[in-house]
Design a protein that fits this description.
CATH architecture of the largest domain: Sandwich
Structural class: alpha+beta
Order of helices and strands: HHHHHHHEEEEEEEEEEHHEE
Strand order of the largest sheet: 6-2-1-8-11-10
Strand content: 15-25%
Radius of gyration: 28 Å
Length: 424
């Protein structure tokens, strides 16, 4: 007999409920009992193997099964606790193949009968509490943070792949950067600049429409300016052509009854027709430097224009603008009620998504603000700072990166502004 070879111990199966059914038990308790029994039974097979098994590759070699099945059997048998095995259970057809192979390798019928009964118990658990293996794995993952993260990512990637086909468009990286810098004429006001970039944007179906969510503010009387501090007369004024693909993509205005939409020109499809386009606008003295009752925060709220593989949101503030703090990042589902018009908005708290994105403090200066997924990002920031006379080495950065954000998500990254000074 081969002794146990890992720290996981399986001396006895989990206790069974008196009535023989797990249906009346809370999910986690029932899952731990059933998975514990299956884990113990598989560990018994590994102990009974004709050769020592110390790693997953040994299961594959000794029992003559494929790599994936060998890995699954080993992971289930040696999981640190029963619930951790719940996302690795083989499919029924694969499991039966393993049992038949184990019988040929001399494992006793008593051990094999127990593992088969344990698997039957597992399938009953799935039907009682989940209805499908996919839903069962999601329930198990909700109790295991590391598994929840893995399943969330896999699910978001699957949604992305479906959305890019249905929507007829996809993007490699979507960028939104909000920059705040003290106004030189009025120290109680902040200049703000918004930089947006769509990189690797492509049509996946001919005839699909890609409409930009950006408002170019070319309406008469608008205070929004180009980064050169000139009036905006057309969409070309806000394009940063040196950072776009050549020829510079054309964005056409389509006036509507209530607002103007901006549509990317062209019909080409596929990766060879993918484009990068970058634009920025500027609002001098755009907001108070201090928290106001209706605007206590500064930051960015962004929803990409197409299904995207990676979303990057940066908030860059000049040193001294905000006190030291932990930024706040949240994700909202915008399908029921549209994009947020203001932040914070107590009426939208019900639309919060459970996923809480990680915020990274980037440090100060261009070298710390670089982004692997946007090769010329530092050059873009340098160009904007040069046009506005800002010192890039005074910019402190905060970043949220999300792989495969759901197409119906709006991500919000905010910092709290300081309170107004007390009048003397």
């Amino acid at each position: 007999m081969t002794p146990p070879t890992t720290s996981a111990q399986h001396d006895a199966p989990a206790a069974e409920p008196a009535n023989g059914s797990h249906e009346a038990m809370p999910f986690e308790q029932a899952a731990a009992a059933v998975l514990g029994r299956l884990q113990h039974a598989l560990a018994q097979i590994i102990r009974a193997a004709p050769e020592p098994i110390r790693k997953a590759a040994d299961v594959e070699r000794v029992f003559g099964i494929d790599h994936r099945l060998g890995w699954q059997v080993y992971k289930v048998a040696n999981a640190r606790y029963p619930l951790a095995a719940g996302t690795q259970i083989p499919a029924r057809v694969s499991f039966d193949r393993f049992v038949r192979t184990a019988a040929k390798k001399g494992v006793s019928s008593g051990v094999l009968d127990e593992v088969s009964a344990a698997f039957d118990d597992f399938e009953t658990l799935v039907l009682q509490h989940a209805g499908s293996r996919a839903e069962f794995e999601a329930l198990v993952a909700s109790a295991l943070p590391e598994e929840q993260e893995r399943i969330d990512l896999e699910s978001r990637e699957a949604l992305h792949n479906a959305a890019r086909i249905i929507r007829g468009a996809s993007m490699r990286t979507a960028l939104f950067t909000h920059i705040a810098y003290p106004n030189t004429e009025n120290p109680e006001r902040l200049d703000v600049c918004n930089l947006m970039g769509n990189f690797g944007l492509q049509r996946t179906r001919r005839g699909s429409v890609i409409a930009s969510s950006a408002a170019f503010h070319d309406e008469p009387g608008s205070r929004i300016r180009t980064i050169h501090n000139r009036p905006i007369t057309s969409t070309a004024d806000v394009m940063l052509g040196q950072f776009c693909t050549s020829p510079t993509p054309r964005v056409l205005a389509r006036p509507g009854v209530q607002n103007t939409r901006y549509v990317l020109d062209g019909e080409d499809v596929g990766m060879k027709a993918a484009i990068d386009y970058v634009f920025a606008d500027y609002l001098p003295g755009g907001r108070s430097r201090y928290a106001q009752p209706d605007r206590p925060l500064i930051g960015a709220a962004f929803a990409p224009d197409a299904p995207v593989q990676r979303q990057v949101i940066d908030v860059l503030v000049c040193d001294g603008v905000v006190p030291p703090q932990e930024p706040d990042a949240r994700i909202y589902d915008i399908v029921p009620h549209g994009q947020l018009a203001r932040v914070p908005d107590p009426d939208r708290e019900l639309d919060l998504v459970a996923t809480r994105p990680l915020v990274r403090a980037l440090g100060r200066g261009l070298n710390n603000l670089r982004c692997l997924h946007i090769p010329r990002y530092a050059d873009m920031l340098s160009f904007i700072c040069e046009q506005r006379g800002w010192d890039p080495n005074r910019l402190q950065g905060y970043r949220v990166e999300i792989e495969y954000p759901v197409y119906s998500w709006q991500t919000v990254l905010t910092l709290a502004l300081p309170a107004p000074p007390i009048p003397h």
